[in-house]
Write a structure and sequence with these properties.
0% of the residues lie in helices and 56% in strands. With 197 residues, the chain is mainly β. It has one domain: Sandwich (Jelly Rolls). The strands form three sheets. It has a seven-stranded antiparallel β-sheet with strand order 1-6-15-8-9-10-11, with no helix packed on it. The protein is globular and about 40 Å long.
Length: 197
């Protein structure tokens, strides 16, 4: 589907995507109300957004420039995400906050979701990056795709296979059209996960 990536497939259910192979752009279109959330304060769990991804190798880095098209709704996002099952997943989001600000948000779920707001994004796009090195995962964000800001380092409490890829969510809106381009995939991790490399 994208020549620089392994073959892509949907989990946990099918979604809607469009590919422009020439510039290597992927567009995901979220259905109304879809999200992944295992509410830490006891609300209902939700895993009806769709990830288009591939099985994560033991060491790799995946990055992309992410942009959301048109009028935005609260919590809508273009996302790089990880999925093992409904209780073990994580996502790095270019999300629209309740205050009306686009920002980087990360969520790590081992049973319940651990949400963390990161930096505000002053432009209409941001670069997101996910890295795996052995049992550890790292999330980074960047304004230019060269110098990276550390978002978080974590593990998922599962030994099952994990898929990594692209997701669009629209928990409060009718849709979210998320564009991913400048997609880069390598079988290596940065030397230092905290220094911006």
């Amino acid at each position: 589907m994208i020549s620089t990536l392994p073959d892509l497939a949907w989990v946990p259910q099918n979604g809607t995507a469009h590919v422009n192979e020439t510039p290597g752009q992927l567009t995901l279109v979220a259905d109304p109300g879809v999200d992944w959330s295992n509410d830490a304060v006891g609300g209902s769990s939700q895993t009806d957004a769709s990830l288009l991804g591939f099985e994560a190798p033991a060491e790799f880095t995946l990055s992309a420039r992410v942009r959301v098209e048109g009028q935005r709704s609260t919590f809508d996002a273009g996302v790089l995400a990880l999925w093992s099952d409904a209780d073990h997943w994580a996502k790095l989001c270019f999300e629209f906050s309740p205050a009306g600000d686009p920002m980087v948000v990360s969520v790590v779920t081992n049973g319940c979701s651990d949400d963390c707001n990161s930096s505000l994004v002053p432009s209409d796009a941001v670069y997101l990056r996910v890295t795996r090195t052995g049992p550890a995962w790292a999330f980074h964000a960047s304004s230019d795709g060269n110098t990276w800001d550390f978002v978080r380092l974590f593990r998922l409490a599962t030994s099952a296979p994990i898929r990594v890829g692209f997701l669009s969510q629209a928990p409060m809106g009718q849709t979210c059209v998320a564009h991913f381009d400048e997609i880069r995939f390598t079988h290596s991790a940065p030397r230092d996960l905290r220094d911006g490399s």
